[in-house]
Amino acid sequence: MELTSSEFASIRGVRLFSSAVGAGRRRRPTDVLLLIVAVAIIAALSGDAPGPTSFDTSLDALLKDVDPVLGWFWPLVYALLLVWVLVVALAPVVGLRRGRLPLLWDYVIALALAVALALLVSVLGGTPPEQGIATLFSADTGAVYVPLRISVATAVIVTASPHVTRPFRIVGRLVLVLGAVATTALGLAYASGALAGAAVGLAAAATVHLLRGSPGGLLTPPQVIDALLDLGIVASTARPLPTSAPVEQHFAIETADGTDLLVTVMGRDAWDAQFIGSLWDALTKRGESPRLSMTRRERVEREALVSLLAQRAGVPVLPVVMAGQGVLGEAMVVTAAVQRTLADVPTQELTERTLAEVWAALVALHAQGIAHRTITAEHVVATEDGRWAWAEMGRARLAASTTDLMLDRVHLLVTTWLLVGPQRAADAAVAALGDGEVEKMLPYLQEPGLTPALRRAMGTDHVLDELRARTVAVTDAQDVPAVQLRRVTSASLARLAVTLVIVSTLISLLAGVDVSQIVDELRQADWALLLLALLVAPLAQVGFSFSTLGSSTRALPYVPVLALQYAIQFLALVLPSTGARAALQIRFFERVGVPYGAAIPMGMIDGISGFVVQVSLLLVIGLSSLPGVTTTVTPASGSGDSSSASPSLLGLALLIALLWGVTTLALPRRRARVKRAVPRFTEALKGQASVARESLTVVKHPAKVSMMLGGNLAGQVVQAIVLGICLSAFDESVSLSQLILVNTFVSLFAGIMPVPGGVGVAEAGFAYGLQAVGVPSAVAVSTAIAFRLVTFYLPPLWGSLAMSWLRKGAYV
C-alpha cells in the first residue's frame, strides 16, 4: 500500500477514500430504510429457521450440479471474504496519522453489533453459539443458521461504503454476493441462513451510520478546481458558499481569464435525498409520482436542459455555462455568477416595481409550461443586466400540471410575504395575476404545499392563515375550501386505525382464529393456484365493461371502457368502491361526449343493474335447490361448545354504519361540506332533469338491458370462480353456487360500508361466508386474505397503468 502526500490514501495511485480527512458527517434517511429492510428480512426468515425452505433445496441442487466446474472456486471466494475485510479494516489503521481513527471506531462498533446480533439470531434459529463463532475462521463447521463470517464481512463493507470510492464499493459488494453463494455451496449454511447473516451485518452497519453519521463524499475547493479541468474550465480559486441543501455544495469560482462563475456540486447523497424525498412525496402528496431512477449526472443535465429551453423562450433564468461529471464522479453544473439574491435585498429597497418584476418572471416561466417547484428567496437572483431571474432549475418540471403551477404561485406569495409582509405580498400577486387567478390559487395556499425551507421560515400555521385571510380580502373572493394535497392526514390515519380495529374485532368474533394458524395455512398454500387466480381475476372486468357499454345510449369504444374498469380498481384503494365507480364513469362519459346530466343517470343505471344481478343471484340460490349455507359458524376456540356463538352480521353492519355516521357528523368541517353540497346537488339535478330523462330510455332497449345484466352476471361468476381457485389452493372446495352466494353477499355488504374499498370489512365477510358453507375457520380466513390480494390489493398495480393511459388519451 502506498500513501500519497495528498489528503487521500491510495493504493498504487488508486484513490481509496472518497472524503477528505475530517469531513463532516450526517445521518441519512437511507440508513433508516436499510435498517428497516434488514430487520424485516431477519424477522421474515426467522419463521423458517434453520431451514431448509423450498428455495434452499432448489439452490442446493443447482449448486451441486455446477460443483464439478466451480468446486475449486468456492473456497477461494470464502477466504476472500476475510481477506477483503482485513484489507478494508487495516487501511484506516495505516492512515491513522491522516485522521482516519473515527472510521476505525466505526468498524469496532459495527463488528461488536454484528457478532452480538448474529449469535442471538443463531441461537433463536437453533444453532449453538460456539458453532456460529467457528464459522468466522473455519470452512468446516457444518451447516449453521447465521454464518458469522458473512455478518462480519457485511458489517465492515457496508460501514466502509460511504467512506471509500466507487471502485472499492463495487468490489466490496461483489465480494459479499459471491461470498454468500460460496457459503451455501460449501454447506456452511442454507441460502436463507446466508441471507439472514447478510441482513444482520446490514443492520449493524446501518445502526453505526445512524449513531455516528457518515460522510457524503463532498469536495474540497482544490478538488473542485481539479474536477472543473475535466469539464474544460480552468479555475484559479474556489470559495465555498452556504447552502440550505446538505446534499449539494455551492462554490464561487474565478476562472483564469477573470470570469466569475457559480458551481453547484451534487455529491453522492443527492440520489439518497431524491430517493427518500420522492418516495415520501409520492406516498403522502396527491399528484406526485416517485422519481427514483434519475442519477446525479442526469439531474444536472436536466437543469441545463430546462434552463436552455427557458432561456430560448425569453424567460429570465441564470445562464448555464457547462454541466457534466468531473473526474471524481461528482456531478456539477456551472452557471453565471449570482450578483445577489432576493433575500439579500433590504426590505426598504423591495419596491412594488421589484415585486412586479419577480411575478412577471414567474408568469413568463409558466407560459412555457415550466414549474420551478422549489421557489425561495435564494432562487430569485439578479443577473448582470439587472433582471431578476430563476436559479437552480434542477427540480423544475416541464409540461407542468395545474397543481405544480399553482404551488409555484403559492411559494412566491409566501416568499414575498416573508420579505414585505402579507398586505404588500397579496397586493403584488393581485396586480400581477388578477383577482380571478389569485382566487384559483387560494385552495393551494396551505401548509402541505410548501417546501421544507418555506415551512421552516414561516414558523407556524397561524401566519399562513393570516396571509390567506389577507389575500381573500384583497381579491374580495370567497374563501374556497383547500384542495387535498396530502394522501396521508391525521384524519386518514384515524380512519385507518378505526378500520384496523374493525378488522381485528370482526375476525376474532366471526372466526376466532389464531394468527399462527393463518400463517401456517398461507405457508402450505399451493402458490401455483394462487398465481392462476391472479391471472383469471382480470377477466371479471371484461364482463363489467359490457355492462358499462350497455348503460350508454351512445356507442362507446370497447378498449377505453375496459381500461376504465381497471382504473376503477385503482381508485377503489382510496375511495369507497361505489363512489369511485360512479365518479370515474361520469367523468369518462363526459369526455366521450355524453352531457353531464346524462352521465349521472348512466352511471347510476350501470350500478343499479349490478345490484339487480346480485339480488337476483341471492334469490335464485336461496329459493332453489342449489347448495347454499350448510352450517352455522362457530369460533375456532376449541371450547367444545357447539352452539353458534357468531354475532349477527347485519347487526354488526348497522353498528359500524351508525358509528361511522356519528363520527362523520360530529366533525364541523364534514357537516359544513354536506350542507354546501346538498343545495348544489339539488340545483344541478333540476337543471339536468330533461337530459337525464333522455338517458333513461336505455332501459327500453332489450339489447342494452341484456348487455348490462349479462356483463354483471359474467363478472360475478368470474369472481366466484377466482374465489374457488383460492380456496382450492388450501385443499378445500365447495360448489359454485355457494361461492357465488358468498361473493355476492359480501359484495353487497362491503359496498354499503363507508370504508374505502371495504378494507377489513370484506375480508371479515369472506371469512364469515366461507365458514357458513362449511370451510374450516383457518382456511376460510386464509382464503379471504388470498382472494382480496388477487382481486383488490394487487389489481391497482395495472389499474394505475390503465388510469395513466386514460389520462393520456383524454378519456378522464
Account of the protein in words:
The structure is a single chain. The chain has 812 residues and is of the alpha+beta class. It has 4 domains: 10-215, no CATH class; 221-336, Phosphorylase Kinase, domain 1, CATH 3.30.200; 351-386 and 399-475, no CATH class; 506-637 and 700-808, no CATH class. Helix content is 62%, strand content 6%. It contains 32 helices and 12 strands. The strands form 4 sheets. It has a 5-stranded antiparallel beta sheet with strand order 5-6-7-9-8, sandwiched between helices. It has a 3-stranded antiparallel beta sheet with strand order 10-11-12, covered by helices on one side. Helix 7 runs antiparallel to helix 8 and helix 20 (527-536) runs antiparallel to helix 28 (702-728). Residues 1-13, 269-280, 282-290, 634-650 and 687-692 have low confidence and may be disordered.
